[in-house]
Amino acid sequence: MERNPVPNGRRAVDVGLILAAAVVMIAGTRVLTLDSTPPGPGGWLLLVTAALLLWFRRASPTLVLVGTIVVGLVYDALDNPGAFYTVAIVIAVFTAAAQGFRWVAVGGIAAATAAFVMFDVLWDTGHRYNPEGVLWFAGWLLAAMLLGEVARSRADYVAASEERARQEERGRQEEALRREGEERMRIARELHDILAHSISIITVQAGVAAHHLDTNPDETRQALQVVRETGKKALRELRSSLGVLRADDAAPPRSPTPGLADLDELVADTENTGLQVRLKRIGDLDMVPPDVGLAVYRVVQEGLTNVTRHAEATEAEVTIERRRGELLLRVDDDGNGTLGTPPPGLGITGMRERLGTLGGTLKVGPRPIGGFRLEGRVPLEEPE
């Protein structure tokens, strides 16, 4: 099997090699024959022909090796003087080995050596090879093959290194895309939690305002104030969540990431809808990691939103408890024990995925004594 031709960009190297081989064979032969008869026109033509055959060495290394050996045998059989006609054969052996045709090179060495000796012994023509000359000739060809093997190994190493570099670059790009996708999912969950909770409160308060618009202006004014404050808070949180999408030279978002310390404000906002909420903190919650605090805050936020929208409850209890090796969160209500018309929306799935990214779990379902319970657990590393 022959290799495909090389790109045109490497043809300059081939042209230079052909010229160099021709010069070496012609000049070397001329120097060796200063005191004797030089080759005739046919001999010079054979030397040039052997050099020109090297033009095809990359595309057809086997045919070029056979061709240079045949030209060399003809040159030798015609009793042309000099030994530089073997330069083209040496280059052809090197090329075959460098391109991975090891056994072609070995066969070429054996065939060339045997053929030149045969011409000398059987037909009493050629350069009258003695054993020392045969060894020198075979040695040069063997050295050319070994150099070709080294060149091929180096080329394979470079190609493998380039392929590893390409694979690593593809891996980095895929990792960047994966992280980008995860960040988009995180932002989507943030937006869902913020909007669902805020719109739920705004909807309830708008209903209160509409109900008391004519009969109780103070109640209407208070409800509209809650709508206004809830909207402003939602805008602040939206800007904070979308801050990662800003340009690199833009100012960073000013709003801090919510956490366990913000649960009191969350409970107060929820109570504006008329739902009575009790918040219980158990254990040391000061050293909870920020990512865990954010996840717990969002799950509680989504849980309270579901209570106000679907459960028809009057009371709810939020429990945050730090136990050894885990953080427990629970949202209980005294409502109808459902999340509304099944199947539930993406809120439960989002909460479960949010805790799952931290190695946590989420369970939801009706309580035996009535109402509904949302319970999540997140593993924590305990200080040594």
Structure description:
31% of the residues are buried. The chain is an alpha+beta fold and 384 residues long. The chain is 61% helix and 10% strand.
Outline of this structure?
It is built from ten helices and five strands; from the N terminus they run ααααααααβαββαββ. With 384 residues, the chain is α+β, with helices and mostly antiparallel strands.
What are the main properties of this structure?
384 residues, alpha+beta, Heat Shock Protein 90, 5-stranded mixed β-sheet, 10 helices, 10% strand, rod-shaped
Shape summary: rod-shaped
Helix and strand sequence: HHHHHHHHEHEEHEE
Count of runs of 4 or more consecutive helical residues: 10
CATH architecture of the domain at 259-384: 2-Layer Sandwich
| CATH fold-level topology of the domain at 259-384 | Heat Shock Protein 90
Q: Biggest β-sheet, characterized?
A: 5 strands, mixed
Strand order of the biggest β-sheet: 1-2-3-5-4
The CATH H-level superfamily of the domain at 259-384 is Histidine kinase-like ATPase, C-terminal domain
The stretches of 5 or more residues where confidence is low (pLDDT under 50) are 1-5, 247-254, 340-345
The radius of gyration computed from the alpha-carbon positions, rounded to a whole number of angstroms, is: 43 Å
* The level-1 CATH class of the domain at 259-384: Alpha Beta
Count every beta strand, where a strand is a DSSP E run of 2 or more residues.
5
Helix content bin: 55-70%
Strand residue content: 5-15%
Task: Reconstruct the topology from this structure.
Layout: H1 11-32, H2 41-53, H3 61-77, H4 87-98, H5 102-122, H6 131-211, H7 217-241, H8 263-271, E1 276-282, H9 290-311, E2 315-323, E3 326-333, H10 346-356, E4 361-366, E5 372-379
Parallel strand pairs: 1-2
Antiparallel strand pairs: 2-3, 3-5, 4-5
Helix pairs in contact: 1-2, 2-3, 3-4, 3-5, 4-5, 4-6, 5-6, 6-7, 6-9, 6-10, 8-9, 9-10
